[in-house]
Amino acid sequence: MSAKSAGVVLITGASRGIGAATARLAAKRGYDVAVNYVSNEAAAKKVVGEVEAAGRRAIAVKADVAREADILAMFAAVDEKLGRITGLVNNAGIFAKTGRVEDVAAETVKAVLDLNVLGALLCAREAVKRMSTKRGGMGGVIVNVSSGAATRGSPNSYVWYAASKAALDAITLGLGLEVAGEGIRVVGMAAGVTETDIHTAAGGTGRLAQMAKMVPLGRVAQPDEMAEAILWLMSDAARYVTATTLRAGGGL
Amino acid sequence: MPKVVLVTGGGRGIGAATAKLLAKRGYDVAVNYQSNITAAGKVVREIEGMGRRALAIQGDVAKEAHVVRMMSAVEERLGPLYGLVNNAGITGRIGRLDDASAETLQSTMDINVVGALLCAREAVKRMSTKHGGAGGVIVNVSSVATTLGSPNTYVWYAASKGAVDAMTLGLGLEVAKEGIRVVGVAAGLTDTDLHAAGGEPNRARAIGPQVPLGRAAQPADIAEAIVWLMSDDARYCTATTLRVGGGR
Question: Which helix (DSSP H) or strand (DSSP E) does residue A202 occupy?
């Protein structure tokens, strides 16, 4: 075990993509990490192994972030096994399907909002209960992983996803102001089009190549690049940044 | 070979804090100043004390000839320009628009907008891969005033910073494929002598408690954001402005 822990961070949806990259970078920066996953236990355990290889503590914790009971159990497990959290990364998110609003099923919209908005709010609520100096906590940082879709609206792709991320941005603003005097910063990171299997699931690598053409920087982002932004926002260097969302979109 | 960054208005406040933090992170720094050579010289000595190269360079960013001469001098003395921090800015005397002089409005626009555009133009000419450059980063120091509007304080300053944000967006898109990122930092209420120049030296202390985080920013708080955006860690951030306002 190397130097003193920089803190305990819970990352939702951390078995893959941006969440996994954030877990690995968090370990490198000295944090102990709770790796939440919903179904891919093998992937989560691999991330846990990588965090431990970096000399930090880690646990894999299964929970469907769209369900309150799962969230409560997850926070209790983190309390017990890693100690009180100092950071939460609300990363778990889906867009479920691509298409036009006129064709979307109610179940798709509901699944997206349950996970991306309700889940993020409930996780933030549990984090605030533990971090707020008003409740005897030591403060902390909540990073909400948003998307440039929140301001672009994503017509013909996933308006429901864009809507969910705009709601998340409002949480960053409102909750950030609500707990600013209680030692907690709440910040957002609006990710650009990132090379993760959220896109592969929706239409293969061809879809990513197509999207890269629309990005002013001329390429899609790597998960590591999003993780850098998240970890900077979580760090003390960002101590005067709260209730706002950083756009890391390559110009999109 | 250390990367070379020019910080306009680098002798004081956010500019000085940025120049020093850049040096700490391994950059060589050109410290532009308009009139206070003593302050700029002090920053240069501190940077040299950290083992980095530094240069104090006089220039009024509102004057094209000064900007062109300054850029050439920086490259001649320190080497190819990697970064520009468009930090020089003024508010003019604090008050309502109906009491503001034309000179106040003119000088605010000249320094904050025309100056930033001219410095950016010269930087792009040197950095753009299209012009044979090696790429680089331009960080524009903006203000939360752009969205607050600053009624009864300095509407013209808010307007000038709104223009800077538009430049961050537009120029960022214009040069995205030429190896140059253009990013902004919207600073909140910061404890610098900018307020004294506006006629309210106690502004940061007086308004600090009203900021959601409960205090005014220190220049170093803003410098951290500028230096991170300048770094390679922020390589996917461009054409956007980060708010560093403590919730404002």
Answer: helix A197-212
The 10 Å Cβ neighbour count of residue A99 is 16
- Chain A 166-195, residues with CB within 8 Å of chain B CB atoms: 176-177, 180-181, 192
pLDDT in tens, B183-228: 999 999 999 988 999 999 999 999 999 999 999 999 999 999 999 9
Non-local (6+) Cβ contacts of B134 within 8 A are B80, B82, B127, B179
- The residues, ordered by sequence, that sit 6+ positions from A227 with a Cβ below 8 Å of its Cβ are A18, A21, A22, A24, A25, A26
Say whether A217 and B176 touch across the interface (CB within 8 A).
yes
B4-56: per-residue pLDDT in tens? 999 999 999 999 999 999 999 999 999 999 999 999 999 999 999 999 999 99
Q: How far apart are CA A151 and CA A139, in angstroms?
A: 30
The DSSP string of A103-166 is G--HHHHHHHHIIIIIIHHHHHHHHHHHH-GGGT---EEEEEEEETHHHH--TTT-HHHHHHHH
Distance CA A45, CA B90 (A): 54
Rounded to 10 deg, the angle between the B116-127 and B64-78 helix axes is: 40
Place of tokens 């890391």: A248
Its pTM stands at: 0.95
Q: Measuring CA to CA, how many Å separate B43 from each of A90, B24, B38, B80?
A: 41, 12, 9, 21
Please report, to the nearest 10 degrees, the dihedral formed by the alpha carbons of residues B112, B115, B120, B122 taken in order.
-170
Contacts of B221 in chain A (CB under 8 A): 239-240
User: pLDDT by residue (tens digit) across A57-79?
Assistant: 999 999 999 999 999 999 999 99
A206: which 2 tokens?
A: 């061809």
What is the spatial distance between Cα A171 and Cα B33, in angstroms, rounded to a whole number? 41
Do A215 and A108 meet the contact criterion of CB atoms below 8 Å apart? no
Q: DSSP state, A203?
A: H
Q: Which residues of A touch B236 (CB under 8 A)?
A: 192, 217, 221, 225-226, 229, 248-250
Per DSSP, helices labelled H in chain B are: 13-24, 37-49, 64-78, 102-109, 116-127, 145-148, 155-174, 194-197, 203-207, 219-230
Mutate to test the interface with B, among A184, A189, A240 (most CBs of B within 10 A): A240
A-B interface: how many C-beta pairs under 8 angstroms? Answer: 91
Q: Could you say which of B172, B233, B244 has the minimum Cβ distance to residue A240?
A: B244
Across the beta sheet with B28-33, the strand order is B54-58, B28-33, B4-7, B81-86, B136-143, B180-187, B240-244
* Rounded distance between C-alpha atoms, residue B229 and residue A125, angstroms: 30
Q: Please, how many CA atoms are within 13 Å of residue A40, restricted to the half-sphere of its CB?
A: 14
Residues of chain B with C-beta less than 8 angstroms from the C-beta of A251? 172-173, 176, 238-240
3-state SS assignment for residue B30: strand
Tokens linked to A163: 């809507």
